[in-house]
Description:
Elements: E1 27-32, H1 47-55, H2 69-73, E2 75-77, H3 88-104, E3 108-113, H4 119-129, E4 133-138, H5 158-163, E5 168-173, H6 178-183, E6 189-193, H7 194-197, H8 202-212, E7 216-222, H9 244-257, E8 259-266, H10 276-294
Parallel strand pairs: 1-2, 1-3, 3-8, 4-5, 4-7, 5-6, 7-8
Amino acid sequence: MSRYTPMPPDNFGGLPEEHSTYETSRAVIFPVPLERTTTYERGTRNGPAAIIAASRHMELYDEELQLEPYKEIGIATQPPIDTQDGTLSEVTSELFTAQLSLLDDNKFPVALGGEHALTPPLVSATARTHKDLCVLHIGAHAEMRDEYQGNPASHACTMRRVVEICPAVQVGVRALSEAEAKAIPKLRTKIYWAKDIVRAPLKTWIAKVLEDLGPRVYLTINLDGFDSSIVPSTVAPEPGGLDWHQVTSLVRAVADHKKIVAMDVAELAPRPGYHAADFLAAKLVYKCLGYIFCQS
């Protein structure tokens, strides 16, 4: 009789059914292959599939937490939401409804993007459930334009729409327009500029971020928050960004001191033959879930 090793299941982490059914899982992976307003590179619609494909090759034991987080959490994977049909407004309305449904089922939603324009409707739905919500945004761009190319729902306006819903803290920002620079002091956001933190001791600036955040946090990670030498596979890569340990140390501290209630990872634009960024995004999601659910 021939013997062979079958491929792992086609879900996040390649998890067996006992740890990935919707009913028993606490976290739900929610693929959002959105690509409507990108203006430089393209490819964000392929991000969720690339992250899930890479995740099937991760080691599932976490050396920091000294356990296998998926066994403690249960991680279900939803089918991708249809982002191609209908107007962008209709798509964002559907995202709002889907997020609300997950929260009503007492699930922890993890949206995989997709361009960052997916975040405002998800934050809006989460704010319905958690009245004292604030947003922690890790990203390169301020995204505080009131509109871009005539579109107030552009990915360039994501955080402007978010601060109309609830306050925000932004970490790693290093690109913005003059109009945004003038508007930011009047908006409900606190920015930790990359130039001020990338060479500063972790404990000093992370402690300040914790002071600025409210008790319940929506975490949105635009992968361009990482330095472009680490994650070049984004639609607008920026030099001068954060590294792996800076991002994971921040998330771990926030998860330890606050309650993270939902999250998204956005703007992976996979490059053919280059999988390091896909794998980083997948492991980042898994690390975040471990920090949120498995810290003692």
